[in-house]
Specification:
Blueprint lengths: L1 H28 L2 E6 L1 H7 L15 H7 L1 E9 L2 H6 L2 H18 L4 E3 L6 H4 L5 E3 L1 E4 L9 H8 L2 E5 L24 H13 L2 E3 L5 H10 L5 E2 L17 H9 L3 E4 L3 H4 L1 H26 L7 H11 L7 H15 L4 E3 L20 H10 L4 H24 L3
Parallel strand pairs: 1-2, 2-5, 3-4, 5-6, 6-7, 8-9, 9-10
Helix pairs in contact: 1-15, 2-5, 14-15
Length: 398
């Protein structure tokens, strides 16, 4: 009996090792595209040479190669506060400068990517490709010419708004809506993005703004890092089934994130409340400043919030359930990945802590019966197809 038990255990271990090897091989061979990595913001706070191992970061070159990551959209993120104080344009340019500096330091390890047509050529030699995604349209200010300016600097998607309403659209986190759709300027920006070949990103948008952006765009749109609201009722930051279907009908892709805040219902509720509390805090401080009175202390606010809202946990299984739901709802051609690595303070599933862990995601998909061709679509094929269609639409402009 003991011998039988031992043989069974060895067989299980061998099968597990074989499955992991198969997952690693596919991760290395497939083109993995992650549409949301927040490395640039951290580079501005504390520079790290991401061409070598950076132990306190979730993205660097050695981890990317270990995980098979080929294309990592660098998030050029600016806050609602930076929009309000007029610094967003400068902050965005500094982040872009940081990404360019990283590529210049390591031309054999990184390359800027501005077209899906260049992926095969530029990834030769093991390079990790770095396209730019602008998270929040705030750096555009009120100048339509800035869309061209940032296109020329390499930006290939723009998330129209972030944590607060802006000149373009309403945020899903805002309690009150300014536009109930897109602003007149926002409509101009979407048309200009279509003309140039910049992907319209509806993550973070309020529902009415997302619907109008999708309807107005002549080419596919994306949700660069949005989980499905099906699992987190009331969390507007995640995409509803209705809006996800609109994205798919336009030929676009919903990119599933890994952060606990998106895939754990309790954490999602905390996140919604947190952004609204921050917006209220900032509004109150602006009022106090205008009145010449002392402002509230942000550190004290953060400390009190953290004490009242413990960190939650999440699992790889929850990420896989999100992907399963998206595939059943939209079809295999309209689901991808947008991790939010380096953007969620490490609040990630234990199996998906860094970009080195993509083989765990692949193994999970394989265990759920996904065919290799379909896994390749989820890992990056769908996003590259949609991006190519956006680029082709720009070339057809008069």
């Amino acid at each position: 009996m003991r011998r039988c038990i031992l043989l069974a255990a060895l067989l299980i271990a061998a099968n597990g090792a074989h499955a992991q090897d198969a997952a690693r091989r596919l991760a290395q061979d497939a083109v993995i595209v992650d549409t949301h990595v927040d490395a640039p913001g951290i580079l501005m706070d504390k520079w790290a040479d991401l061409g070598i191992e950076a132990r306190d970061r979730e993205f660097d070159y050695p981890k990317a190669r270990a995980g098979g990551l080929d294309v990592a959209f660098m998030s050029i993120y600016t806050s609602h506060g930076q929009d309000t104080d007029g610094s967003a344009w400068q902050v965005a340019n500094r982040m872009i400068d940081g990404v360019h500096a990283l590529v210049q330091r390591h031309p054999g390890r990184f390359a800027l990517l501005t077209s899906p047509a260049d992926v095969a050529r530029l990834r030769e030699g093991g390079r990790v490709l770095l396209p730019l995604g602008m998270e929040n349209g705030a750096p555009l200010g009120d100048k339509l010419a800035n869309v061209q300016f940032f296109f020329d600097r390499g930006v290939r998607y723009i998330t129209l708004a972030h944590s607060g309403n802006n000149r373009l659209a309403d945020s899903s986190y805002a309690r009150d809506r300014q536009w109930n759709g897109l602003s007149p300027f926002g409509r101009q920006v979407v048309a200009e993005m279509n003309r140039l070949g910049i992907m319209v990103d509806v993550s973070h948008l309020g529902d009415a703004s997302a619907k109008e952006a999708i309807a107005l765009s002549r080419v596919p749109v994306i949700a660069s890092h949005s989980a499905f609201r099906h699992f987190t009722p009331g969390f507007e930051r995640n995409i509803s089934d209705e809006i996800a279907r609109l994205v798919a009908a336009k030929g676009g892709v919903v990119q599933v994130p890994f952060g606990t805040a998106f895939i754990n219902p309790d954490s999602a509720a905390d996140t919604q409340a947190h952004f609204r509390a921050i917006n209220a805090f900032n509004t109150r401080n602006a009022e106090l400043k205008a009145q010449g009175q002392p402002e509230q202390d942000r550190a004290a606010f953060d400390k009190a919030w953290a004490a009242a809202h413990p960190v939650r946990s999440s699992t790889l299984a929850q990420v896989l359930e999100q992907i399963d739901h998206g595939v059943k709802l939209l079809g295999i051609d309209h689901v991808g990945i947008g991790s939010d690595f380096d953007g969620v303070d490490g609040e990630l599933p234990a199996e998906l802590k860094t970009v080195a862990d993509f083989p765990n995601l692949v193994a999970g998909l394989q265990a759920r019966g996904y065919r290799e061709a379909d896994i390749r679509k989820i890992l990056g094929g769908n996003l590259l197809r949609a991006w190519a269609e956006v680029e082709a639409g720009a070339s057809r402009q008069p």
